Amino acid sequence: MTPLERRYRLLLLAYPPAYRAAHGKELLGVLLDCAAPGRTTPEVRESAGLVTGGLRERVRHAARGSAWRDGLHLGATAVMAVQLAVLLPYAGSIPLWVVLSALALLAVLRGRVRIALPLALLTGAKAVAIASGRQLLDVTLLPVYPSFLTARPMFVASSPATVAVGYGLACCCLLALAAREAPPRTRSWWWWAAVPFAAWAGPAWMAEGTPFPISLSRMALELAVLGLAVWAARLAGDPRWALAAALYLLVVSTQLGEHLAMLTPQHLAYWGLLVLLTALAALVPYGGRRRVLLG
Amino acid sequence: MFCDMARGTDEVSEPMYYVLTALLDGPLHGHAIMKVIGELSGGRVKPSVGTLYGILERLNDRGLIVVDREETVNGRNRRYFRISESGQSVVEAEARRMQEAAALVMKRTSFA
C-alpha cells in the first residue's frame, strides 16, 4: 500500500461504515487514478471533498426512515444523555442509579427502547424522590454530594416537578417508540463523549452564587450539537433534527423557567441561542433552492 | 414571470447539470464522468472525487440517474451510471429554461 493510498483510506473514514464497505474501493480507485504520478500526499481540494462528502453521506444515511420516529428517538437520546450527565458527578454516592441511568442510555443508543423504558422510569422515579427529599427503593443520604466534575449538591436548584418533566418527556418518547414492533436504529457511540462535557460545571462563566448556573462546557456542547442539527436539516431538507432539538429545548426551558425571576442576561442569551438554533433547524429544510448558474 | 423562470425546474446545481449532460451520451463510470465534465466545461468545473460521488448519490436517490452495471477492472470496482428518463427531462427543461433566459438578453443586445 502506497503512502498516498494509506492517507486516502484514512480520509475515507469520514464516510459511514456501510458506505465505505459498499463503495470505498471504488472511490479509492478513482482518487488514485486522478492523482498526479509520484504524489504521496492528497491534494487539499480532494481531502476537503472527502471530509465534506463523508459528512454529507452520513447525513443522507441518517435521513432515512420515518422522520417522526427518528426525531423522537434522537430527542430522547439527547435528553437521556444529559440526565446521565446530571447523575454522573454523584457516582460515588449513588453508584447503582448512575449505572442504571447509563444502561438506559446504552439501551436507547442500541435502539432497545423496550429495555430503556423501565430503566428510565426507575431512575426517573429515584431522581424525583431525591429532588423532593424522599427515600425510594434504597436509603440515600441527603443531600447527595458530588465526587467530581461539580461542587454543588444534587438537584440543589431543581424542583421535583422540573426533574419529573425531563424524565416524563423521555419516557413518553420511549413509550411512543416502543408501541411499534420495529425498533429504532442504533445511534452513534459519540453520545457517550457528550456526557462528561454536559456534566462538568466548568469553566464557570456566570458569577458565583448564581442560581442554576450553566457551565461553558455544557453550553459549548449544546451549541455545537444544535449547530450540527441545523446543518444536517439544511442538507437533508428533513424535519427530524428540528423535532429532536425542540424536545431538548422543552426540557431546558422547563429548567430555566423555574428560575425565571432570577435569570441573568447570560441565561437569557444562552436560552435565546438555543431557541434560535432550534428555530433554524425547523426552518432551513424549507429554505431556497439552488439553481443552475452557467458561467 | 421572470422569477418563475429563473427559479428553475428542480434543484439542479451546476455540477449536477454537467453530470447529467455527460451521461446523455451513454453510461459512464466515476472517473470517466470526471474527465467528460472537465472537457464540457473547458476545465472550469472540476469537482473533487468526494463532491462528484455526493452528486451521483443524490441524483441516484432522486431517480435522475441509475446504476447501469458494475464491473471490476484491475481489482477496482466501478459503477457505470446511466441517465434515467426523468433525468433526461430535467436536464432538457434546465437547458430550455436557460435558453429562454439567455434569449431575453440576446434579443435586447444583438438587435440594439
If you had to describe this structure to a student in words, what would you say it looks like?
The complex is a heterodimer of chains A (about 300) and B (about 110). Chain A contains eleven helices and no strands. Chain A is an all-alpha fold. Chain A has two domains: about 5-60; about 65-285, no CATH class. Chain A is elongated and about 70 Å long. The model of chain A is unreliable at about 290-295 (pLDDT under 50). Chain B has about 110 residues and is of the alpha+beta class. In chain B, helix 2 (about 15-20) crosses helix 3 (about 30-40). The interface between A and B is medium-sized, with 30 and 29 residues.
What layout of secondary structure does this protein have?
The complex is a heterodimer of chains A (295) and B (112).
Chain A lengths: L2 H9 L5 H18 L9 H19 L4 H21 L7 H15 L3 H19 L28 H19 L11 H10 L16 H21 L3 H19 L6 H19 L12
Helix pairs in contact in A: 1-2, 4-5, 4-7, 4-8, 4-10, 5-6, 6-7, 7-10, 8-9, 9-10, 9-11, 10-11
Chain B lengths: L1 H6 L6 H9 L5 E2 H11 L8 H13 L3 E9 L2 E8 L1 H25 L3
Antiparallel strand pairs in B: 1-3, 2-3
Helix pairs in contact in B: 2-3
Please provide a brief summary of the model.
The complex is a heterodimer of chains A (295) and B (112). Chain A is mainly α.
What is the CATH topology classification name of chain B?
Answer: Arc Repressor Mutant, subunit A
**Alpha-carbon distance between the termini of chain B?**
23 Å
- Largest protein-protein interface: A-B, 30 and 29 residues
Task: Indicate how many domains the architecture of chain B comprises.
Answer: 1
| Cα gyration radius of chain B (Å) | 16 Å
Number of strand segments of chain A: 0
Structural class of chain B: alpha+beta
Count of DSSP H/I helices of chain A: 11
The beta-strand count of chain B equals 3
Mean pLDDT score of chain A, rounded? 88
Highlighted features:
heterodimer; A: 295 residues; mainly alpha; 2 domains; 11 helices; elongated; disordered C terminus; B: 112 residues; alpha+beta; Arc Repressor Mutant, subunit A; three-stranded antiparallel sheet; 3 strands
